[in-house]
Design brief:
The chain is an all-alpha fold. It has a domain of 50 residues.
Length: 84
């Protein structure tokens, strides 16, 4: 349940806010015009905004928010080549 709360409350960027605004605006129009198709479109945009997903799926179009830093260093072997 903690991940759901974290998803809802963090990482609000411009695209996520834009999806929320578009979904809300379409929802208002759907109610005013009694148009169920616009209601489905608004639900689609609102779902994307709430779950922070794009058209490609979960974080398919977004850059990962947290990058893992590797502290492990690999040993590199060098071989010297002499030319005559």
């Amino acid at each position: 349940m903690e991940t759901l709360k974290q998803t809802l409350l963090t990482n609000w960027n411009f695209m996520r806010l834009l999806r929320l605004f578009i979904g809300g605006a379409i929802a208002v129009q759907a109610f005013q015009l009694h148009d169920p198709m616009m209601g489905f479109f608004s639900a689609f945009f609102l779902f994307q905004a709430v779950t922070n997903t794009g058209c490609c799926g979960a974080q398919g179009c977004a850059v990962p928010a947290v990058k893992k830093k590797s502290t492990k260093t690999d040993e590199v072997e060098f071989e010297e080549i002499k030319s005559n």
